[in-house]
């Protein structure tokens, strides 16, 4: 490709070191699609003939079909997928193939291909997120009245429903979808025609090419168009946040499925056993999701570090963007494909959840509220209830079965109706504020999420 300037061939090890075809071959479809649009633009502008354009587009279509059907394998001796396609095209149609690269640099060609590739792959991830959110909403619907302890600091705090708890993840994942859509929107501007860094002297029509490839507009500074990868970083940040949410959910699933909690049981299809302990049922899929989160974080940090000191415009360092972001995409996709059916098939052990809720004094706030509604200052009520909890601990009982006389020893405001007020069902269902844990509130959350998914 650059033989005219050089007196001898590249060292074989240096050639391997420089080559990217082993990973950028993933973009073959986008490279060919972009090249077809480029050839059509060149012909429209009279830069190449209509006859050459037809040869090029037919040749490129044939290459795409042969790769898809397994008839054509990538030549790993080529430096990258762009040169592989161009060399194969020239071999098939002759000199017309050499005209394809007119008014184009690999710099803007690479920037184009990766934007198109990421646009498509991110849409696949969005669809997988939608499936997971829908599955969570379905599981929440099934368990909208199942009472479970809510936790802060991993200590039992207040009674909630299991449906309410997992709907928190549905809301998080909805925001992840929005983040991805926003990132794609900012990324969807065409760099083709920026050339190496300074544009071109040819009378081109960049907008024709951008429209043909589904872009919303053009990169308006040719240096910016070829030399930044902020769109990769933004997507990788969004991927990392997705993995953070999946990791937190995984951690809870791991805890819930342990004998210490026994709140849920994962389906056999998403667990493994032990090589020497026959009783074990390990939540390995959730553990792997948790573990792979660090991998996606690492890819983001690696690319941030790669880009931080680069002068404008293009530098070969930027070749490092692809392996990092490709790995992140594939990791997120793999985790989502496992996570949704794991949630869908998960069994909820409602009785165990209810027993745990009974034992944690998690209705203590409601007992304090009972006194407050009768006129006692909240801080005074808080202190009295704290003393009652301490008494229950000493007597090895719970608030629900402490005798009324014991309550009255702390305050004459206590009446028999307190037991109804501090029942777990009452504690849950009277929390009717928007976003709260009552069954009616959870139903509204589920309806909201399902409506958002339709949009």
* CATH class membership of the largest domain: Mainly Alpha
Number of domains: 3
Under CATH, the topology of the largest domain is which?
A: Fumarase C, Chain A, domain 2
The second-level CATH architecture of the largest domain is Up-down Bundle
Structural class: mainly alpha
**Rounded radius of gyration (Å):** 30 Å
Helix and strand sequence: HHHHHHHEEHEHEHHEHHEHHHHHHH
The helix count comes to: 20
- Helix % is 55-70%
Tell me the name of the CATH homologous superfamily of the largest domain.
Fumarase/aspartase (Central domain)
How far apart the termini lie comes to: 48 Å
Q: What sort of overall outline do the alpha carbons produce when their principal axes are compared?
A: elongated
Average of per-residue pLDDT values: 94
Annotation, overall tally of beta strands: 6
Described by its quaternary structure, the protein is: single chain
Strand order of the largest sheet: 1-2
Q: How would a textbook summarize the main sheet?
A: 2 strands, antiparallel
Instruction: Indicate the low-confidence ranges by residue numbers.
Output: none
Content of β-strand: under 5%
């Amino acid at each position: 490709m650059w033989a005219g300037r050089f007196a001898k061939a590249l060292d074989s090890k240096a050639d391997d070191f420089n080559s990217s075809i082993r990973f950028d071959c993933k973009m073959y479809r986008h490279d060919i699609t972009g090249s077809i649009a480029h050839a059509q633009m060149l012909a429209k502008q009279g830069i190449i003939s209509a006859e050459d354009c037809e040869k090029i587009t037919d040749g490129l279509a044939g290459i795409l079909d042969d790769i898809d059907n397994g008839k054509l394998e990538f030549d790993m001796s080529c430096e990258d997928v762009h040169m592989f396609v161009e060399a194969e095209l020239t071999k098939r149609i002759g000199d017309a193939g050499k005209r394809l690269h007119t008014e184009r640099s690999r710099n803007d060609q690479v920037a184009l291909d990766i934007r198109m590739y990421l646009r498509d792959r991110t849409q696949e991830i969005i669809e997988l997120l939608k499936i997971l959110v829908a599955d969570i909403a379905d599981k929440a619907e099934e368990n909208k009245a199942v009472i479970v302890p809510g936790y802060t600091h991993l200590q039992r705090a207040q009674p909630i429903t299991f449906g309410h708890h997992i709907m928190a993840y549905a809301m998080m994942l909805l925001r992840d979808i929005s983040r991805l859509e926003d990132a794609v929107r900012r990324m969807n501007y065409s760099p083709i025609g920026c050339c190496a860094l300074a544009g071109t002297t040819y009378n081109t029509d960049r907008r024709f090419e951008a429209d043909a490839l589904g872009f919303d507009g053009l990169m308006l500074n040719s240096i910016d168009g070829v030399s930044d990868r902020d769109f990769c970083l933004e997507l990788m940040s969004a991927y990392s946040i997705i993995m953070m949410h999946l990791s937190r959910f995984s951690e809870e699933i791991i805890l819930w499925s342990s004998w210490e909690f026994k709140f849920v049981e994962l389906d056999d299809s998403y667990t493994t056993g032990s090589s020497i302990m026959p009783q074990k049922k390990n939540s390995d899929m959730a553990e792997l999701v948790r573990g792979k989160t660090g991998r996606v974080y690492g890819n983001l940090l690696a690319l941030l570090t790669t880009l931080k000191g680069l002068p404008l415009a293009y530098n070969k360092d930027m070749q490092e963007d692809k392996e990092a972001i490709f790995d992140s995409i594939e990791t997120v996709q793999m985790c989502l494909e496992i996570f949704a059916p794991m949630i869908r098939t998960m069994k909820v052990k409602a009785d165990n959840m209810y027993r745990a809720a009974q034992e944690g004094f998690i209705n203590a706030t409601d007992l304090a509220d009972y006194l407050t509604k009768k006129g006692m200052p909240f801080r005074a009520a808080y202190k009295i209830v704290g003393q009652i909890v301490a008494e229950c601990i000493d007597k090895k009982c719970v608030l629900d079965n402490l005798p009324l006389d014991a309550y009255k020893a702390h305050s004459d405001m206590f009446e028999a109706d307190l037991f109804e007020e501090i029942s777990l069902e009452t504690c849950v269902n009277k929390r009717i504020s928007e976003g709260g844990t009552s069954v009616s509130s959870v139903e509204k959350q589920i309806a909201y999420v399902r409506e958002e998914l339709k949009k």
